[in-house]
Amino acid sequence: MKIRPLHDRVIVKRVEEETTTPGGIVLPGSAAEKPSQGMILAVGRGKVLDNGDVRALEVKVGDKVLFGKYSGNEVKIDGEELIVMREEDIMGILG
Amino acid sequence: MKIRPLHDRVIVKRVEEETTTPGGIVLPGSAAEKPSQGMILAVGRGKVLDNGDVRALEVKVGDKVLFGKYSGNEVKIDGEELIVMREEDIMGILG
Amino acid sequence: MKIRPLHDRVIVKRVEEETTTPGGIVLPGSAAEKPSQGMILAVGRGKVLDNGDVRALEVKVGDKVLFGKYSGNEVKIDGEELIVMREEDIMGILG
Amino acid sequence: MKIRPLHDRVIVKRVEEETTTPGGIVLPGSAAEKPSQGMILAVGRGKVLDNGDVRALEVKVGDKVLFGKYSGNEVKIDGEELIVMREEDIMGILG
Amino acid sequence: MKIRPLHDRVIVKRVEEETTTPGGIVLPGSAAEKPSQGMILAVGRGKVLDNGDVRALEVKVGDKVLFGKYSGNEVKIDGEELIVMREEDIMGILG
Amino acid sequence: MKIRPLHDRVIVKRVEEETTTPGGIVLPGSAAEKPSQGMILAVGRGKVLDNGDVRALEVKVGDKVLFGKYSGNEVKIDGEELIVMREEDIMGILG
Amino acid sequence: MKIRPLHDRVIVKRVEEETTTPGGIVLPGSAAEKPSQGMILAVGRGKVLDNGDVRALEVKVGDKVLFGKYSGNEVKIDGEELIVMREEDIMGILG
């Protein structure tokens, strides 16, 4: 089963970082906090503008992204924990 | 009796998932929480834009959708419990 | 005496449902709660858009509509209890 | 002395209803509450739109209008108690 | 020393009314409350619209205006107490 | 070292008024309160409009301006205390 | 590993100032407070406007900028503490 996110939403699979890896991204505070990094699994058609046009998203499937720890809504699909969030919640693309 | 939702609203019939099914969608927390998955029964004509145009909705009748557990307003029609929500409240289409 | 509602407002006469009727609409909770169903008695000229244009309303006189229990303002005209609400408060048209 | 209201404001003189009149408008609650009905004494030039245009008001001098009990600001001019409110606060025109 | 107000702001000199004058404007409540009436001393170039255009103000120097008792910011210039407010805060022009 | 403010921000150097000077501007309350008057040291390129255009600011370097006592953010540059604020926070130009 | 910030976001590396340097920027209060000064390491493509156009940012890589102490989100990449913020949070460019 798959989700096709609506409009400017994306589906993100959280990447569990080893918090002791020197090159890993860790939010400040406890090293045991869940890192807010993930992989884009699906993207919506784009953001609906005030004039009715649709603007395609800047992120694409496969992008590794950074996002706020509490962004989006968590869902479980086929036993897999995913996050549905808006592109607006994504801070940047890692690469 | 039927409801024709206005503008960007849709009528959704909640689908009761077996929470133990491996492929089912379960929101995190208690497995006994009501899953937020449903079937679109009716859609409005579209969202009225600032310039007066109407943008047709992206979801259509028959779509299986995912939505926030507290989205929309519950109504009972002909003994059937339905939810009236805005397309904006729908996170994605399952398929 | 009549009211001509302004802009995107409508005049609704609440329909008192028998809460035990199987086909009736009952909001969840107590069966004794006032049902939020009514008949449109009058409609405004339409919503004034940001550019000054007026968009005609989608509901019309005679429509049976569903609305939130606390929507609008109640007024009594010629001994009749009516509600003045905005089209935006109407969830759908019953038919 | 007169007030010329600015933009989308109007000057309303409250009409004191006999609350026992069958055809009168009485807000729900105590029959002794001040009715929210009045006569338009003056209107502004119109609402200034985002693009700078001015949209003339829909109400005109002499209209008998219905409005929320706490709408607008009360002022006393030449011993007469008046209300300055925005057209947006007017629910409908009585006639 | 003079102030040239920016954009849609105006400089108002409060007019102290004799509260016992029959033709004076008195806000409801205590007759000793400061009346909210004043004279326009200076006006800004106009309101900057979303598209960058400037809309000239409707009030002009010399207008006697009515405004909410707590509108604007009080300043003292050359020993004179003045109020800087936005045209939006002015309810109407007296005349 | 200098700051070039971004967009619609300006750099203001607060002018310490002698609060006993008859022609000085003093905000109401204690005469010992810091007066909110200053000199514009630098201005941004202008406010970015919704359509992407940039509107040049109305204030310019050297203007003596009046502003709310708590407007903007205080910074110290080369030992000098300055305020970074938006043009919107400036009430008027003194002259 | 690098971050490419989305839209109107930028990546800033905080510059630790010696708080006793006469030419340094110190926010008022304790001299031991972290100064809010940094270097731009990466910029997004630009702010997405209401009409779908993208406006390039005014800051560029290498700019030394001033920003509010609590602006943006701190992240650690390859052991380096960085801040992801919106251009809107930047008060000015130092030079």
From TrEMBL, chains A, B, C, D, E, F, G:
Keywords: Cell cycle, Cell division, Chaperone, Cytoplasm. SMART domains: Cpn10. Pfam families: Cpn10. It is found in: Cytoplasm. The keyword Magnesium does not apply. CDD domains: cpn10. Together with the chaperonin GroEL, plays an essential role in assisting protein folding. The GroEL-GroES system forms a nano-cage that allows encapsulation of the non-native substrate proteins and provides a physical environment optimized to promote and accelerate protein folding. GroES binds to the apical surface of the GroEL ring, thereby capping the opening of the GroEL channel. Belongs to the GroES chaperonin family. Heptamer of 7 subunits arranged in a ring. Interacts with the chaperonin GroEL. This is Co-chaperonin GroES.
